Amino acid sequence: MDVISSSIKTYNIWFEISGVEVGQHLYWQIGGLQIHAQVLITSWVVIAILLVSVNIAVRNPQTIPTDGQNLFEYILEFIRDLSKTQIGDEYGPWIPFIGTMFLFIFVSNWSGALLPWKIIELPHGELAAPTNDINTTVALALLTSVAYFYAGLSKKGLSYFEKYIKPTPILLPINILEDFTKPLSLSFRLFGNILADELVVVVLVSLVPLVIPIPVMLLGLFTSGIQALIFATLAAAYIGESMEGHH
């Protein structure tokens, strides 16, 4: 009963998180659904940037690669190495998922520092990086949870759930709660870092508009890339853990 009540409380926390707002936001009312328009707009921009960039760089592969082709080949090799290191020999099918997570988060984070979202006026609220919104980071974290559950169940079947009573059944409540804390830590780490970085830049620009913000923005680009790497690495590690059954 303690485990059930704890799980119910955790689900209630997720529902409360989905209602968290920082500032005002623009919503679209479609039927009975209230759509968070700011996140959709900026997410579509990020997806468009990725699709256009890939199409331009690799639509005509060359025997002697161009600079753009070299860049994307390096990124693919990097993602493949990351996936192999964290997941193991069965990493192949998971490269698209890990790569999508890494590239979407990376470009989203950088868009917050490089694109002038603030100059686009909205009826309510203002545009910002997709990962600057808790709904985006929670959605990415939940997708990661679904992925590692799928990985474990597809390889081990129902015997996957034996992990909850290993090495001893006494750890059952802790092992169950671990699966709830993973998406919580993933989502809040990414959201908190990106939000804090953008707030620091905004404050410094308002106080010292000419000198100080530039090194802070450069540091923000670096930390944004690191956050994307951390998220992708942890996602791959969780998938590898569920398939191998080790902690």
Index terms:
single chain, 247 residues, mainly alpha, 7 helices, 69% helix, membrane, hydrogen ion transport, F0_ATP_A_sf, transport
Task: Give a summary of the structure in a few sentences.
The protein has 247 residues and is mainly alpha-helical. It has seven helices and two strands, in the order αββαααααα. It has a two-stranded antiparallel ribbon.
Describe this structure in words.
The chain is mainly alpha-helical and 247 residues long. Helices cover 69% and strands 3% of the residues. It contains 7 helices and 2 strands. The protein has helices spanning 2-17, 37-58, 67-87, 95-114, 134-156, 172-207, 213-244, and strands spanning 27-30, 33-36. It has a two-stranded antiparallel ribbon. A hairpin with a 2-residue loop joins strand 1 and strand 2 (33-36). Helix 3 packs across helix 4 (95-114) and helix 4 runs antiparallel to helix 7. The longest helix is centred in the C-terminal third of the chain and has 36 residues, at 172-207. One of its GO terms (cellular component) is proton-transporting ATP synthase complex. One of its GO terms (molecular function) is proton transmembrane transporter activity. Its main location: membrane. This is ATP synthase subunit a, chloroplastic. The chain crosses the membrane at residues 35-58, 94-114, 134-153, 190-212, 218-239.
